[in-house]
Amino acid sequence: MYIVFKGTDEWFEKHPQLKEKFKKTYKTIYEAAHEYAVHMDELVKDRTNDSLEIEISENLLKQTLIDAFDDLLRLTNYHPTDKPNPIKEMSYIVFWLVHRKPIRLVSEDIIKNDKLTDIARTRLLFINEEFGVKLLINSIFTGKQENGMFSSVKDEAQKQLKYYKRFLLYYLIYRLDSPKALEAMALGCTIYPIWNVNPVIWDNPEDTEHDF
Q1: What pTM value is reported for the model?
Q2: Closest by alpha carbon to 127, among 177, 66, 32, 54?
């Protein structure tokens, strides 16, 4: 067993064809993590009048993507998959995000604030897992989440989606054992006919360009 830290320059030399994709993915996720940190800070301020201090480690986030891209490369090299769909890609990224934990709650004393609910404390303590849920949901849906349905059906669907997000958080905290299990869970959500999911997910792989 080898434990090796890989710098991005070394990785780019080995995989020059993925340099731009890597940089674009890193920029997207880093900006999303920053926006998420600001959002969480606003929520906490609104409920407690206290501020959050959240750090995002650029090195750990880059290592997260290197690990995820390496796994996806192995898939395309040894399996009939030229271009992993958005859910597959994000499942591997979230898997390594949870392991590498690039987001850190610095101001942990906020957890003791009695104005926070138990689920709010959970989301702050397991901030990488909570952010992972956001990434997965965004990889599933595109634009408006609901098709034209009766309002009563929409209300019920929103309740189900809220519970589904809660279940994903639980799974990431306590049950996550592989990216493929996470992918299967996320794909299951796309079957429900009320949701407008990303159409790329069900594209014929033979019609897509080679990315990895």
Answers
A1: 0.83
A2: 54
